[in-house]
Amino acid sequence: MSNSGNASYHFFFSNLANPLRIDIVLSLRDKEKSVTKLYKELGVEQSKLSHALASLRCCNIVESKKQGKERIYFLNKKTIMPILNLIDKHSTNFCKTPCSKCEKASHKLA
């Protein structure tokens, strides 16, 4: 794989390594939402939310459309929804009990 291919992997996964961005993705999983609804649901500063959404849009993880005066956000159904479904399947098949190694690794990252 070329270095440019590696860079896209790094950017994609580092984009999703942020807890707020994961919360946004999971919030949009079942229903598209306005910034106002996301702001109320997630309880974060609007500037942080806007920054996180911009980053997710840059990678085409989320998309948006104008609806009146509001911008409505939704997941890229073509690629992100299948990835989320695959993660669910992996989790069901291989993460049945909390793995102490995974827990230790995630605490080191926090």
Could you walk me through the main structural features you see in this protein, from its secondary elements to its overall organization?
The protein has 110 residues and is of the alpha+beta class. The protein has six helices and three strands. It has a single domain, classed as Winged helix-like DNA-binding domain superfamily/Winged helix DNA-binding domain (Arc Repressor Mutant, subunit A), CATH 1.10.10.10. It has a three-stranded antiparallel sheet. The two termini are 30 Å apart.
Task: Sum this structure up briefly.
By secondary structure, the protein is an alpha+beta fold.
Number of helices: 6
Form type:
globular
CATH class (first level) name: Mainly Alpha
Mean pLDDT: 86
Rg, Cα atoms, Å? 16 Å
Helix content: 55-70%
- Unreliable stretches covering 5 or more consecutive residues: none
| CA(first)-CA(last) distance | 30 Å
How many strand elements?
3
The largest sheet has its strands arranged as 1-3-2
Strand content: 5-15%
What is the CATH-assigned architecture?
Answer: Orthogonal Bundle
Number of structural units classed as domains: 1
* Largest sheet geometry: 3 strands, antiparallel
Structure classification: alpha+beta
Find the CATH topology: Arc Repressor Mutant, subunit A
What is the ordering of alpha helices and beta strands?
HHEHHEEHH
How would you classify the quaternary structure? single chain
Give the name of the CATH superfamily: Winged helix-like DNA-binding domain superfamily/Winged helix DNA-binding domain
